[in-house]
Amino acid sequence: MSLASSSVCFILSLLVMLVQAKGRNDSTCPKTFSCGNLTDLSFPFSLSTQPDCGIVPISGCDVKPFPRVQLVPGGEWFYGIGKEYSYTVWVVDPNLQTILRKNKCQAFNENISLSDSPSISYTAVHLQNFFKCNRTSSNNPYINQNMKDHFVGYYSYDGCDGFTIYYKFYGVDDEDILAGNHTANCSLIRLPYYPTEPGNLVNFLHPEFLVEWKLSDDCSKCHYGGGRCQTDKKNNFLCYKDAKANRRELGLILGTVFGGVLVMITCLAVYFIWCYKKRKYNPPHFLSTRKLSYIFKNDVDGGSIYFGIPVFSYSELEEATNDFKSSRILGDGGFGTVYYGQLKDGREVAVKRLYEHNSEQMQQFVNEIEILTRLRHTNLVTLYGCTSRRSRELILVYEYIPNGTLADHLHGDRAKNRSLTWPVRLNIAIETAGALAYLHASDIIHCDVKTNNILLDQSFSVKVADFGISRLFPNDVSHISTAPRGTPGYIDPKYHECYELTIKSDVYSFGVVLVELISSMPAVDMMRHSQEINLASFAINKIVKCAFNELIDPSLGFDSDTKIWEMTRSVAELAFLCLQTDRDMRPTMTEVLDTLKEIQTSEFDNEKRAKLLLNQAKSQPSPNSVTDKWITCSSTIVANTK
Length: 642
Fold this sequence. Notes:
Distance between the termini: 84 Å
Structural class: alpha+beta
CATH class of the largest domain: Mainly Alpha
Strand content: 15-25%
Number of helices: 17
Shape: globular
């Protein structure tokens, strides 16, 4: 492309950006604003005191604990508890929250439904389809059996009086399943469902869910053209513009055209001067490196931050990954795709290419860099460098760990190799616990501890990875309030209940990892029985019953080696403490690390086991608690081994 063509394209792009940037013609409408814990809000959101500035009103910014959001005009108000991306918002249904506190079965009288308008459409995430069917009288078993036959392959729940709940994961059939006379008494309802804590079906219901929104093309053009998105009496879209707005728009366009010409002339002059200095003083590669380093040094708005790591150009990483070829893909994370690459100096690298270049991804990008550059630990993955935030894409470059993830070896493609013997697994647990204890000592919560984020090298040494959603945790605060994040199956149950994140949240997630290590089962498996889908629930039930042989993987050889049996059972007991719903009952990562080392060296004898169990149980108020039952069971085992 010639310089002249580039200049013309630049001017046209500038015109579009300036016309769009003017947004609302009403100067009283802020481009961005905050309301309570919701920050960096923009159209379509608006304060309820400024209804002309948006189509989704927010009120109660000073009300504890969360402001309120009205997604549908004239509809129900929800609590807004946080943002995941610029186009999403976490909300809580206050009516459902009240019902779940009083009588959880009454929740099946509710149904989460968000109607669309000509201006905006919604998608509610984390909702599960449930089919509520009224039970017929017991003297008509024929109809009841027909009902069960119709829902073959579905899980059923009969814990509520008067009706049966049928549900099936992945949301198959939906309304079609209701076809047929024998399902006339059934209705399809949708409710938020998080299988993350022990208990039956109703205990998995929660009042919060994630809402994704999308503006219609008509509303987007209207808003960025200076109009106001409205709906007429027939529910048709209407774009309102007053005469003054049209005159202002014409004046802005004319001013933009003339201003664009001046900008083009200025840019051309700067370009020629830059090219002249480039040829005179610097070889091409040296300038590129200096320029990128300078950009990155001033890469964070509001300050000057230099992270002290190399900055790679996009072309370097494109060449290292063979143009990001699909055959080089190592895996897909929550925020990007990871590719295998080889730098010019011969180093093998893992290149994480973030999905989008927006403010949320920029936060993940900077967050991971800040954390990994301030930490040095043999069991944390090493960050080699990154691109500048002004690069065409956000990319992070790590050391390449060739032996896959712990999840691959436990229940993935590498599991068939049976390379993870019990001594190897116990060492993996110790090294992972050491890395997490180091993070906690450095005031950092990982937030996403799972077997997919535990990498293994050729000697099966651990490298903990993926710090994109990690959080700095100053020691002068008790918790961090944040919207739910993490991976199902590993999330602290208290996280969903009170939205408070602590170091004990990592301890819970690590407890799930310990159970995976001794059982070789995945954290969530939809093919298991409904009460066993969540591995934490399954493990707790087995440990309480002292059915360790039903939990521990037989391939570890515990039935022929009493030492392995003793160690795996001790690890199961430790995992049980980590998985306690009461955070005060969970040990710290340092205590977990010390206990694992004692188990490895056979120093974790019956006396130390009893002391650990009883110390953790002191704060448990209920004499009938699950923990008390387990301690009784464990004490019996201890007595029998003497």
